Amino acid sequence: MLMLGKAAHAASTILVFGDSLSAGYGIATQDSWPSLMQTELKRSHPTYQVINASISGETAEGGRQRIHDVLQQYKPAIIVLELGANDGLRGGSLNQISSNLGAIIETARRNHAATLLLGIKLPPNYGEPYISQFQKIYSSLAEKYRIPILPFLLDGITAEQFQADNLHPVAAAQPTIMHNVMRVLEPLLH
Question: Does the pLDDT at position 170 exceed 80?
Fold first, then answer.
């Protein structure tokens, strides 16, 4: 978890709610994009603190099950939602993935938190029909709920900027990811 320090009690909270791509899998926590975002916000918008409630391996279904408790614990002003990749990598039901992400967005809304949705793409070995339908989940949800979206979290990350598993970006890629997110997050900050 990332805290702002003595001003934390007066800060507005941004909750990063994702999977290993946001949890900093395979890299030092301080090198992860949410940690870098906290550093950036400390400079540009010091009234915000970032809480990273991401869990490696998390699915949209798992997120749906724990979102209420996390919202009650942190009472965020904004949720940066980055889930669905693990469901897609397991070939999960597209309708179920969409339903679970929609339920998370609705729960956030009921708790007066704005949502920024982060989209992800699947590797090509999942076949074009599934891949394209998976990607449409994010744009459809953003349209349905009228929320901002970053269509592809890893935009601009090159092949050599991934760990050996070809799924998780290395530390050197994290600033690019942070800037991708900040570009869409900025309009939500007061």
Answer: yes
Task: Tell me whether residue 179 is one of the annotated catalytic residues.
Answer: no
Catalytic residue among 22, 54, 98, 168: 168
The residue from 12, 31, 165, 190 that is catalytic is 165
CB-hemisphere CA count at 13 Å for 184?
Answer: 23
* Mean per-residue pLDDT over the chain, rounded: 94
Residues 187, 31, 113, 89, Cα dihedral to 10°: 110
> Is residue 31 annotated as a catalytic residue, yes or no?
no
Using DSSP's 3-state secondary structure scheme, residue 67 falls into helix
Instruction: Give the whole-angstrom CA distance, residue 79 versus residue 113.
Output: 6
Instruction: Give the domains, in start order, of the chain with CATH numbers.
Output: 8-188 (3.40.50.1110)
* Amino acid occupying residue 15: L
Question: Which one from 19, 20, 35, 87 is the annotated catalytic residue?
Answer: 20
Residues with Cβ within 8 Å of 111's Cβ and at least 6 positions away in sequence, in order, are 71, 72, 75
- Residue 165 a catalytic site member: yes
Each residue's pLDDT tens digit, 27-41:
999 999 999 999 999
User: Which of 76, 8, 11, 41 shows the shortest CA–CA distance to 181?
Assistant: 41
